[in-house]
Design goal:
Helix content of chain A: under 10%
Helix content of chain B: 10-25%
Largest sheet of chain B: 6 strands, mixed
Oligomer: heterodimer
Order of helices and strands of chain A: EEEEEHEEEEEEH
Number of helices of chain A: 2
Number of domains of chain A: 1
Number of strands of chain B: 11
Radius of gyration of chain A: 15 Å
CATH superfamily of chain B: CheA-289, Domain 4
Number of helices of chain B: 5
Mean pLDDT of chain A: 84
Distance between the termini of chain B: 78 Å
Low-confidence stretches of chain A: 145-149, 153-157
Strand content of chain A: 35-45%
CATH class of chain B: Mainly Beta
Number of strands of chain A: 11
Shape of chain A: globular
CATH architecture of chain B: Beta Barrel
Largest sheet of chain A: 6 strands, mixed
CATH class of chain A: Mainly Beta
Order of helices and strands of chain B: HEEEHEEEHEEEHEEH
Strand content of chain B: 35-45%
Shape of chain B: globular
């Protein structure tokens, strides 16, 4: 699925694969699954931000959400799922590296229990498998311990 | 649901292109406006006019330079950006700021027509370090904010450190006279 997401419905979700786990994002905030493009990196001190990609002439920040969701950075990814993050001043596209196994599904979300982590909005049952629905904004503000030292990294292909 | 349509105006397109100096530190490339740089010298040529700051809280600044009756603080760009230690060979002496910057090498000059705003995702010190990002020859390069090398507090701290050194020298001179 390398395409712009068309006609998202209220119960429409994009399933994404991170390592061996699947998560879901509301399709309303997902704009596209981008092909593997070059990750450009430069010194910064922002938690989770591993660099930027250039997509359709725009510079899109890339978030290493695997460090939160899997407890480690995932080096195995093939594509970038681009979704919209909301800030007080407006919104901005952000990309998360995924392994490429993305799927658009329609399902009813069950509310998350009170003791669930804040970045989990609820649960979808897809073919009997419970899949956590991510709150993209909460996920990106619930980052790991802040790096004090800047995290420069090589540009990667 | 296209992003492009909703992000108009994020790219600050200059009316005229801007001449940039592309320089490298620890194999990372940065751009700085040529207009912000007064002079580029080799570290060897400035060795005699540099003074060591013995007690500085600002670890990225170890030396001062005297140029045109002004004291410039020499910022190690590698230390500033948290990059691996290298052996800088050049000093960029900035214009309108009492700052000189140690860098590894100059890559080249380039005309840059557009500077993209730093995405909001970048919320750390880099917001002070960079004016924005530019896309040149398939590379995204941060464009340096010259005033981001030292904060006002850091200038104050360095001024205190250098004045503390200068005072005894001044007294020493007075006694000799």
């Amino acid at each position: 699925m390398i395409a712009e997401i068309q006609n998202p419905g209220a119960n429409s979700y994009v399933l994404l694969q991170l390592a061996n786990r699947r998560f879901a994002l509301p399709s309303a905030i997902v704009s596209e699954l981008a092909p593997p493009v070059r990750l450009h990196t430069f010194p910064n001190t922002s938690p989770l931000v591993s660099g930027v990609i250039v997509r359709r002439g725009r510079i899109v920040p890339v978030y290493d959400v695997a460090s939160i969701l899997l407890g480690r950075s995932s080096s195995v990814h093939r594509f970038y799922l681009i979704a919209r993050r909301t800030f007080p001043e407006g919104s901005e596209a952000g990309a998360i590296p995924v392994s490429g196994e993305c799927e658009l599904v329609a399902a009813e979300m069950q509310e998350a229990s009170a003791n669930t982590r804040p970045h989990i909005s609820g649960i979808l049952l897809v073919d009997g498998e419970p899949i956590e629905v991510l709150n993209f904004d909460a996920l990106l503000t619930s980052g790991p311990a802040r790096h004090n030292a800047p995290r420069p990294a090589e540009a990667q292909s | 649901m296209k992003i492009a349509a909703q992000e108009k105006g994020k790219t600050r397109r200059a009316r005229h292109s801007e001449q940039m100096i592309l320089f490298a530190v620890a194999n990372r490339m940065f751009a700085i406006a040529a207009a912000a740089v007064q002079e580029i010298r080799s570290t060897d040529s400035l060795a005699v006019s540099a003074n060591e700051i013995e007690y500085s809280e600002i670890l990225k600044v170890r030396h001062t330079l005297e140029r045109s009756h002004q004291t410039y603080y020499v910022v190690n760009a590698g230390a500033h950006f948290g990059l691996p230690i290298t052996r800088p060979t050049l000093v960029l002496i900035l214009r309108q700021l009492r700052v000189a910057v140690l860098v590894d090498r100059i890559e080249r000059m380039a005309e840059i027509a557009a500077i993209h705003a730093l995405p909001r995702a970048f919320a750390g010190e880099e917001r002070r370090w960079y004016r924005g990002l530019t896309y040149l020859d398939d590379h995204v390069i941060p464009v340096i904010q010259p005033s981001g090398f030292l904060t006002t507090d850091e200038f104050r701290s360095l001024d205190r450190a250098t004045n503390a050194i200068a005072a005894p020298r001044h007294l020493e001179g007075a006694f000799q006279e």
